[in-house]
Amino acid sequence: MAHLADFDVDNKYQATVKKTERLTPDDTEEIREIVLEVNQPGFECQVDQSFGVLVKAEGEFGNSQHHRLYSVADLPGKTNGKQQLTMLVKRCSYVDEFNGELYDGVASNYLCDRKVGDEIIITGPHTLPFVVPEDNSANFILIGMGTGIAPFRAFVKHIYKNVKDWKGQIRLFYGARSGMELLYLNDKDGDLTNYYDEETFKAFHALSPRPHFADPIALDVTMEEKAEHILELLNQVNTYIYVAGYEKVKEVLDKAFANILGSEEKWATRKAELKAGKKWAEVIY
Q1: pTM above the 0.90 mark?
Q2: Residue 148 forms part of a structural domain
């Protein structure tokens, strides 16, 4: 969650819901793809930016608004001069650590309940750390969990549609509980599979061994199985690693990279090099 004080929310725009579609089956966690049309012509959001959603709600310190940031999940386009934005929203709930009560997530439930034609208030655009470098031979290890696939879908589509003659290698690791929650890489909405023909692109899936028992997603196992791909790129100075997912993924990644490189010390050194060179970026929620 982004606090109101953390971002400039003075620039507010009105957006209309043009499409809302549930991408996951009814017996799984609800994830919706929502397409918005911004009513004012002055709003511009690129693939390396995010936008905020403002929801009226009682919050911390007496705030009457709830602010949540979302990455664009597709290439931003325009219809009749108005920008259209695609977003992924997972309907969330949480247990209060003090009283043990179950509460609905404010922004996610608000957005999942919107209908076509409803209007919402958005802010931005805001910065996102996933930038495309000028060097078209740069390599990427992209790691997304759940709705963390959103920025990487837009990122990959932008590279192969708008950047000419991309020579760098792109390896996408995507974790989800089950195959039907593997957004944009399944039989229903698998538009990322269109890039399997690109010589520079490969995607790898990580699933939970027992999704109905809430077993953890085996992201580390999948990464270690593809260690040769990761080692090849980690040995090159122009490799970037971008991560989007929940907090626990950081521990899983450190474990996997340490095993792939042979020790925690070697991974700590390589990770420090990536951060120093601004080649490591993460969006954690």
Answers
A1: no
A2: yes
